[in-house]
Write a structure and sequence with these properties.
Strand content: over 45%
Number of strands: 25
Helix content: under 10%
Number of helices: 1
CATH architecture of the largest domain: Sandwich
Number of domains: 2
Largest sheet: 16 strands, mixed
Pfam families: DUF1775, PCuAC
Keywords: Signal
Protein name: YncI copper-binding domain-containing protein
Radius of gyration: 22 Å
């Protein structure tokens, strides 16, 4: 049954108590689309309809089942992102490459989703090596400060768990067509997370004092992709340190500066609220898989061949206008 776990100061997890507080919940954590075709790459959209007995949700952990591979999570404004990697039980083919490991758990952390609101958490991944008719279970841990709701019950026969109080979200695998859908999402890069990026065509070069900003580009956004990624290089030829403080764009409601880092096989993304230091005599690159711009609330999805205007605000050099060239989602 569904449980609430209370954290004590002296123990990682203290006493388990009854889940009756959750009995009034109107809906379970579930997927927006509950079916996926064999050998297709999809956006698995997890629906989170409520908090924990009125408490705001602060963390969401999703364990990925075998057969859901090459996973990349959608970053969310106001949340930190952690990707835990491990070995697969089998070897999977990724466009000719044999892959034996990847993301096995996704965590959105340090957020604040009020019980009054509803939200979704999205993971791009491929359904591979799974027989039609099989249901893949994605156990979810929903944390609300010192309370935890475990959505992890799975029927023994893999069927829809009617009557269960805390069922794990299920994704039913159906027979794929002859072409599949993998080409629809193949190579999609959520703000440049993961994958090898081919050299991008350089955009215009702009000078502001001792700074030279060049090689600006953005990735094309595919259907269903909620955020865009932007990249460029800053060279400081002077003798005074500077700092990129913020970025704005007329085509996006908000532009954040983010960084990716991997430690102990765990990949984390964090927002750089203090900007990026550009030391005297140094060159700083924003590139896929590392530091990058994240365009939120994009008015029109970026298309290859378009341009994305941005305004960079530096501590010393002031405001600098730059145009990013939109390249393909695969970075070619």
């Amino acid at each position: 049954m569904k449980t609430i776990k209370t954290f004590a100061k002296t123990f990682p997890l203290a006493a388990l108590v009854s889940a009756t507080a959750f009995a009034s919940a109107e809906a379970h954590v579930s997927f927006l689309d509950k079916e996926a075709s064999q050998e297709s790459t999809i956006l698995a959209t997890l629906q989170l309809p409520h908090g924990c007995d009125g408490k705001a949700t602060t963390e969401v952990r999703v364990k990925l089942p075998e057969g859901f591979v090459f996973a990349k999570p959608q970053p969310k404004a106001g949340w930190e992102l952690e990707v835990i990697k491990g070995d697969y039980q089998k070897t999977y083919d990724n466009h000719g490459d044999k892959v034996k490991s990847g993301a096995v758990e996704i965590r959105w952390k340090n957020g604040n989703l009020s019980d009054d609101f509803y939200d979704t958490f999205v993971i791009q991944g491929k359904v591979s090596g799974v027989e039609a008719g099989t249901s893949l279970a994605f156990p979810v841990i929903q944390m609300c400060g010192d309370a935890v709701a475990a959505w992890d019950q799975v029927a023994k026969d893999g069927s829809d768990p009617h009557g269960m109080k805390s069922p794990a979200p299920l994704l039913k695998v159906v027979a794929g067509d002859s072409h599949g859908h993998d080409h629809d999402m193949a190579g999609m890069d959520m703000t440049g997370m993961g994958g090898m990026a081919a050299a991008a065509p350089a955009g215009e070069t702009v000078k502001a004092g001792d700074l030279e900003i060049s090689a600006g580009f953005a990735k094309a956004m595919l259907p269903g992709q909620p955020v865009g990624g932007g990249f460029f290089t800053v060279k400081n030829s002077g003798q005074t340190d500077d700092r990129l403080l913020s970025v704005t764009s007329p085509v996006s409601g908000e532009v954040q500066i983010h960084a990716m880092e991997t430690k102990d096989n765990v990949m984390r993304m964090r927002q750089l609220k203090d900007g990026i230091a550009v030391a005297a005599g140094e060159t700083v690159k924003l590139e896929p898989g590392k530091m990058h711009l994240m365009f939120q609330k994009v008015k029109t999805p970026f298309k290859q061949g378009d341009t994305v205007p941005v305004t960079l605000t530096f501590e010393k050099a002031g405001k600098v206008d730059l145009v990013l060239q939109v390249v393909s989602a695969q970075g070619k």
